[in-house]
Amino acid sequence: MKGPALKDELLDSSAVETAAAMVELGHAVASASGSGAAERAVRSLSLCSGVLGGSLRPQSAWRFSGLCSDGCPLEFTLSSADNALRFTVDVAPPEIPHQERLSAACELGIRMGHPRVDPKTLRRWSLMQEGQTLTWGARLGIRESDGLEMLKIYLEVPVAARSSVFPDMSRPFPDSVLVMIGHEPGSGRTEYYFARRQFSLPDLNRLLGMLSSNEERAVLVGAVEHVCGMPLASALFWAYFGFSLAFSRGISAPLPALFLKNSAIGGAARTRQRMLQCMPARVKERSLYSRLLAGMPEDELPDHGVVSICGGPGGPGEMRVGLSGMALAPILRGLQPKRDGCVRQNGVAL
User: Fold this and answer.
1) Domains in the chain, number
2) CA distance readout (Å), 344 to 289, 302, 339, 347
3) Could you identify which of 40, 140, 193, 266 might form a hypothetical disulfide with 180, taking C-beta atoms 3.0 to 4.6 angstroms apart as the criterion?
4) pTM for the whole structure
């Protein structure tokens, strides 16, 4: 049975069975990470998957979302720099209105044991979304960092509020459009996500100027050139980038990051090539990404979603890709031992 057939099999399963498959996938990522924080994140994943699995619309519970191209409400973010567990998830099943998802996100965070959002901040967010047309409302992001589980609430910025919501500094570019806010209640870190049509070299230099050292700027430029596979000027001409600015307590300047769709750099096959090329051997040795996708035929590769480009201390920088849980779980299932004792890869007994 090929990968796509395994995915169809998963779609035909009950919503509860699919939720269990997502948790199984989380355990596989946590095993690659090897940290206690990752195991805690799996418990959070289990809670979120259970909420989705309990949907009153079980046939659409795992295919209703705009988070992933296949409708899956769960996306795993895999990195070239580490094997940490990171995922983003819709906070409620499809029958829950988008207007109610902010409160659902906050409630889920509390159930996971994370701090509450500051009441004034929550009230401001609620007023921003009240009475507005929303396409997804709010989501949760979970990641392990320095031995801890970190939670981020992602908030959709409605069209009517996009010109007025950005209190920390003036809008970086006149044509940039604020589309999302990410807030970590535990650390107070807030990230603002912008869509933009096209960067020029002066535009990028303005963003790079927010970094504290020439080395950091050089790393980010090198990462852009590596991911795009061409010199910086050409990359800026051919690819359309989004960007984010992250503000942390006690740090005066925001930290920038860049984003682009994997289709802008040649699709899943080219993205995989770039990921594996910049993955250090120590990471690749345990990487679930490498294990599941390195040997997969190009025409069977899952969509790689949005590619994130971050700077780092030396090296080629960091590259992250977003992969649907519904796409990854059947691939993992195809590698697992079956009851007949055979190991199967992409559904084929070895």
Assistant:
1) 1
2) 17, 19, 11, 5
3) 193
4) 0.90
